[in-house]
Amino acid sequence: MGIESIVFTLLGISRHAGEIDEACRNGVINLLGKAKSGIKIVSGELNYQFYSKDGLLETLMQASERGVTIEIIAGPRPNEESLKRLSALRGYVNLYQLSQWPTFHFIMVDNEHVRLEMPHTPGQKEREEYILHNYKDAEVLEKKFDELKKQAKPLETA
Length: 158
Known about the structure:
The structure is a single chain. By secondary structure, the chain is an alpha+beta fold. The chain has one domain (3-154): Endonuclease Chain A (Endonuclease, Chain A), CATH 3.30.870. The chain is 37% helix and 26% strand. It is built from six helices and eight strands; from the N terminus they run αβαβααβαββββαβ. An eight-stranded mixed sheet has the order 1-7-6-5-2-3-4-8, sandwiched between helices. α2 packs parallel to α4 (54-65). The longest helix has 14 residues, at 138-151. It is globular and about 30 Å long. The protein starts with a helix and ends with a strand.
């Protein structure tokens, strides 16, 4: 185990670099499954590899049924197939669309558990992400989410 792995373990951080795969999705599903009050997601294109999996949609549905508020902000051209999948959650998820691509993407659960995705270009398959638990500076992301939401318009799904 390298020093980076030791530090990440001590700080409660997990890291994934590479293409979106099952481990990446499972990490996010586990993160979303912890939600008690709120899930806020900032995504660019609503990547189909990510949002097409049933486990993710089922987890969002279950969270909503527990009374969790779910909001998703997407970029100007979200993936149509992902939107079709998310339309099954109409009434459970509030979708918003920006007129420009968000600079960075994140998922925040209960304002304390966070998945940060490093900047990348739309359509890029390689990603670097970090999942942080009990993140002390989550209010910074809360403010960023609120700023983006003010710039966004509600997104109607088919």
